[in-house]
Amino acid sequence: MSDTADQDVDQAEQGEQGAEPTTEEERLLARRKRRLGANRNAERTLAHLGFLGTLRERLAFLQEAAELYDLDETSDMYGGGIVETLEKRVAELLGKEAAAFFPTGTMAQQVALRCWAGRTGNPTVALHPLAHPEVHEGDAFSQVSGLRPVHVTSEPRQPTAAEVRDFPEPFGTLMLELPLRDAGFLLPSWEELSAVVEAARERDAVVHFDGARLWESASHFGRPLDEIADLADSVYVSFYKSLEGLGGAALVGPKTLIDEAKTWRHRYGGMVFQQFPTALTALAGLDRELPRLPEYVAHARVVAAALREGFAAAGVPWIRVHPEQPHTNEFQVWLPYDPDAVAEAAIRQTEETKTALFSNPWDAKGPGLAFTEVYVRAAALEWTAEDVKTAVADFVVLLKEEAGR
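RE: above sequence
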């Protein structure tokens, strides 16, 4: 059973109500519940994830976001009003003709790629096997949209221009996830990305960016968002992963594509009657979180270096921060221990010290090898490198206790 952060909240809330876990699934659910409870009570953390809050806290967050806008404006119905305002804002930010709001990124990308398949006459989509549609969407490409995925590389990295150019069969669309989350939030260099896009163009393929976390990728590329988006024919962006919105996504591209996408949005059940809560928080995220993302990315590199130094000083024989210098404000940490031992040590540290160094789940990367994802947000800016090293030292004491049991 996967122990990933994006999927564990609802499962945890449905978990144990005091009974001793008897199956592996129940054990993992009980652990999730402990971890989430410990994180909610933590006084210090690298990232306060709003979606883990109580209903009262989420309503207060919505009210705070709403105060930034004219609340006497008529509410939206089926995508009008403030939803249109959000769409125009995102289209301008990404330098595209038009945008369409979607309730989920999964729907946005299914629709985009279905539209491109009709326009190119080819339902084959080239993408990475670690891309979101292949890992987290239950084969929706083939089962819902009639698309056929092919993999340009199986390496845990972004594809190269040569791999795209030399792929042995035609494809209508090349989809690039920027960053590639399940490979470690990896991004290519600007030159590599430009070359990959050019290779796709040489094959008369269109290019779609899965930009769920594109917002925080600009620092790595050293380019503004509209220049990055200009490489692609269409781009999807998320409003909750980085911008702290209640949910939602947008698809941007040529107006003709977006008009067609809105028709398919209706067919897919995405014409929600009123969406103003999500739209309000998305706009607030663009105002408040988007300008801060470069600061988070820079500090993620401070945190990553301090983690390496802290584990070395604590006598841990081997550690990997991946990538060594984070490409975004999120990265992976690998440790040569059983995932159960590391997960228990992380939870104990949060429970006993109210300091959450590792808030996310730990999973197996191989025999005796565990990894987790580290998110660096506003809360992390209060941590110095020495603070990180101190927390690592405390964590290692608990880790050695758990590993010795």
